[in-house]
Amino acid sequence: MMQLTAFRVGAVAWTFTGVAHDVLEFALSADPQLTAAMRASSVEVGPVHLNAESLHRGVSLAMGLAMIVVGILLWMISEVLRDNLDRLRRFGRVALLSSILALGLAVVWVPGPPLVTFTVATAAFTAALLAKTPASSSRSGRHA
Question: Is the Cβ–Cβ distance between 123 and 12 less than 8 Å?
């Protein structure tokens, strides 16, 4: 069985990470020399020519948006499957694996807030998956 509240905490951690990422993308000032160098560098993506700064900004904002969508979808999945926690468990496994991988990336390349938020998500999905409920242990004679 799954623990629904912990699952939702993990979903909120993903959403918060995406929102914070995109807010910080605009709030933090970049190194002017790096920005100038990126603007001077052209990148060809198929038939489109972009400067590297625009490409970087677009990919970064898209990544933040994707994290927001993941969090919202996880929350929505928890709503749809709240009465079928065994089915929700499959989504919990994917969410836990994704959170662990994102935490690993944060450890290596993105220190700061993602270390905290993906640690929260990892802990939340772990707690959700490890939760013991009376229904699951009495039904099968073993712990879920």
Answer: no
